[in-house]
Specification:
about 40% helix, alpha/beta, 17 helices, five-stranded parallel sheet, 14 strands, nine-stranded mixed sheet
């Protein structure tokens, strides 16, 4: 019997409510030549029972059972060692695939003889059923132009900003992974950072499919990301140090330094928000020393100048209260304070064309941006979000037929929001704030 063309690796732990939908979304694909390697990570619920029933119905399902809980990273490594496919996919047990996904992804990889195929995804709210599309940022799609295949060098050293570090939005050539000895890290969170980012900078043939093929489920009771703590920031540090060491060993660090530092720093700071005040001093010292090990002296090491001030403040904190009172996690406060000309350019653009200004999105980043707007007297005409309905936050319909610019704080959401905004008004312009403010890309290239 010939080896399967695709190996699908699914680590399974405490996902009894979702694992059957996940596996069936793979089994129901139009593409049939695959194996599914389910690694039951000593799950205490009914996952093992569900997997055995599904495996009895379809011989393409293999089950590996860990005798003790080893974590998602080690479980993926176990599955990878057993895999026989030419290409490999990693899918989380609470996510699910769109129909036709594997056939199209396989065709992309074969046509381009790819090391890695990147594709887009939807976030799926487990409570409301609402979906939101996340795409490669428009600025990078423009940068790559009509290229069907590109390499790390052709990303203009934006390797770490091109797409998320998650393993479930990529198809990999298995031999490429084996040849470069790329594995998942043994840490409790962020264990795919080393694998994905190292693969990205090693790859010579990368493709991109502008298709949302995976549904990432959130608002579930067992998600690791729902219980954020200092452990996540500490794991980010471990992943960052390991990744830096591997890039240095392979001669890839200097080329990717600014992209890597900008990305890993913001990742760590974001996860520092939930440090327990009672363990702050110990956790902070470990995080600070780790950040310094990764980044060192802040000389031309980030994409934008405000990072130098931000980095200095973060590594000189004296107490938990100071971290909270200074809002260290809010990058926008540093942008408004130290790169005011960027904010004035947005205001000048709006005034020139007599546009109103709307912030679309009032989640974590949207709230931080609004906080900076209030502190520095930057007036927004509207704050818009589908999930809110209050005097301050309005539904998107307020844009209907209006002449306005829409500010989007997440680069991966700019494409989807621009489609929604233009459906409401032909006079809307969308600004990818993350690419402009954080990545230092020219203003004109971030307006859509």
């Amino acid at each position: 019997m010939c080896d399967p063309l695709i190996s699908v690796i699914v680590p399974v732990y405490k996902k009894e409510l979702y694992v059957e939908q996940c596996i069936k979304s793979i089994l129901n694909q139009s593409f049939k030549d695959f194996e599914i390697i389910c690694v039951d990570d000593h799950s205490p619920d009914r996952c093992g029972e569900i997997l055995k029933r599904l495996a009895a119905e379809d011989s393409r399902i293999q089950i590996i059972t860990n005798e003790v809980n080893k974590g998602a990273g080690i479980s993926r490594n176990i599955g990878l060692r057993k895999a026989l496919g030419k290409y490999v996919l990693f899918i989380d047990a609470d996510d699910f695939c769109e129909p036709g996904f594997m056939e199209k992804a396989y065709r992309y990889c074969e046509t381009g003889q790819l090391d890695i195929l990147i594709y887009d995804y939807c976030t799926y709210d487990n409570c409301s059923g609402e979906k939101m599309e996340h795409h490669m940022p428009l600025v990078f799609r423009q940068m790559l132009g009509e290229q069907e295949v590109f390499s790390d060098e052709e990303k203009h050293s934006f390797s770490f900003q091109i797409c998320t570090a998650s393993s479930w939005i990529k198809m990999y050539n298995r031999q490429f992974i084996v040849n470069h000895n790329i594995t998942f890290q043994d840490i409790s969170s962020g264990n795919d950072i080393l694998f994905n980012q190292l693969a990205g900078v090693c790859a010579k043939r990368i493709g991109y499919a502008n298709c949302c093929w995976i549904n990432y489920r959130f608002n579930t009771s067992y998600q690791i990301t729902s219980a954020r703590s200092a452990e996540h920031a500490l794991n980010d540090v471990k992943a960052g140090i390991a990744l830096k060491n591997e890039m240095e060993k392979r001669g890839l660090y200097e080329t990717n330094k600014r992209s890597f530092h900008t990305w890993i720093y913001t990742t760590i700071v974001s996860d520092m928000e939930t440090i327990n005040p009672n363990t702050w001093e110990t956790d902070y010292i470990r995080i600070k020393e780790g950040v310094k090990t990764i980044i060192g002296d802040c000389q031309d090491t980030f994409f934008a100048p405000h990072f130098d001030y931000w980095y200095k403040d973060l590594t000189n904190l004296t107490s938990y209260d100071e971290m909270i009172s200074e809002n260290i996690s809010n990058e926008y406060l540093y942008i408004f304070k130290y790169e005011k000309e960027k904010i004035m350019k947005i205001k000048g653009y709006a005034n020139k064309f007599d546009y109103k200004i709307a912030l679309w999105g009032y989640g974590r980043n949207g709230k931080k941006f609004y906080q900076a707007c209030k502190e520095f007297d930057f007036v927004l005409d509207w704050i818009i979000d589908k999930s809110y309905n209050s005097d301050d936050v309005l539904p998107p319909d307020i844009l209907k037929n209006e002449k306005c610019i829409v500010l989007v704080t997440s680069a991966s959401l700019a494409a989807d929001i621009s489609i929604q905004a233009r459906a409401l008004s032909a006079h809307c312009k969308v600004i990818d704030m993350q690419s402009y403010l954080s990545y230092g890309i020219k203003f004109e290239e971030c307006v859509f």
